[in-house]
Structures are given as structure tokens and as C-alpha cells.
Specification:
Jelly Rolls
Length: about 150
């Protein structure tokens, strides 16, 4: 009888852990993240429309684009902070190559890190203090220093 109760508890615990894991993975595809539409004003007068998931909490920033197998063209993630600091990123559990655009408080690109390699353990540290960081598919956007992101969250 006691052995049966232990097996039942193990079974219930296993079911709980599986359900909890699925619930905690809900944000991995970005479906539970706030999404906004922004425009990138580039120097050659073309405007590019971007659909961006917002990472504005410690938890969202720590997960970022991890565990995603792909992101659509003109989609990405915008990391927001209340102040300008040196920013550090890494590609741990990130399965896609990314370009990182470091921006000041006005949304102007002040530094670019191109082609961060998927699953790389190397820390990517900005050389300048940034207020926000935009992550997009590597090679998708040929932005330059001075281009400006305009969106409601900046």
C-alpha cells in the first residue's frame, strides 16, 4: 500500500512538473510579450516598419530571444532600460544569429554588433552607454550609426 502511494505521488509530481514547464515556456515564442510597431528612419530616407517584442523587465531581458528557432523578417526584440549604461549580452540558448543595435535615449543607433553567433558563450559588451538595444535577424537590416528608431516605448 505504501509503495503504491509513493508511486502515485511521483506520478502526480511528474505531471505537475511537466505542466509547470509548459506554463513557464509560454513566453518563449513571444506570444505573451507586449509587441509594438516601430519605424526605423535610415539615412537614405527609407523607413522600415518593425514589429518588436518588448523586454522591459529583468525576467524578460534575461530570456530575450532564447529558445526561438526563428523570428520573422522585420520582427525582433527591443530591450529597454530607464538609464544609459554599458550593456552586456550573450547568445546562451539563442538558436539564431542576431545583429544588435545599441541606441541612446532618443533611439539613435550609437553602436552596432553584427552577426552574434547562435549559442556562442562570448559576452557582447557595448563600448558606449546605451539606453536600449534592438535585436534583429543577422544581416536583415543594413542600418548604420545615426539611424533612428521611432516608437511609442522610447
Amino acid at each position: 500500500m505504501f509503495k503504491y502511494q509513493i508511486q502515485k505521488i511521483k506520478y502526480l509530481l511528474g505531471v505537475f512538473l511537466i505542466l509547470y514547464s509548459f506554463e513557464s515556456l509560454a513566453d518563449i515564442d513571444g506570444s505573451n510579450l507586449k509587441n509594438i510597431v516601430c519605424k526605423m528612419h535610415v539615412k537614405n530616407n527609407k523607413n522600415i516598419t518593425l514589429s518588436l517584442d518588448i523586454a522591459d523587465t529583468k525576467e524578460k531581458k534575461s530570456i530575450g530571444l532564447m529558445h526561438r528557432n526563428k523570428i520573422k523578417n522585420n520582427h525582433g526584440m527591443l530591450f529597454l532600460w530607464p538609464d544609459s549604461q554599458t550593456r552586456i549580452f550573450w547568445m546562451h540558448n539563442t538558436f539564431i544569429n542576431l545583429d544588435l543595435f545599441f541606441m541612446n535615449q532618443e533611439g539613435v543607433i550609437i553602436e552596432i554588433y553584427r552577426n552574434a553567433i547562435a549559442l556562442d558563450k562570448f559576452n557582447i559588451q557595448s563600448k558606449v552607454k546605451a539606453r536600449s538595444v534592438l535585436e534583429l535577424n543577422a544581416g536583415e537590416f543594413k542600418g548604420n550609426l545615426g539611424d533612428k528608431l521611432v516608437c511609442p516605448s522610447l
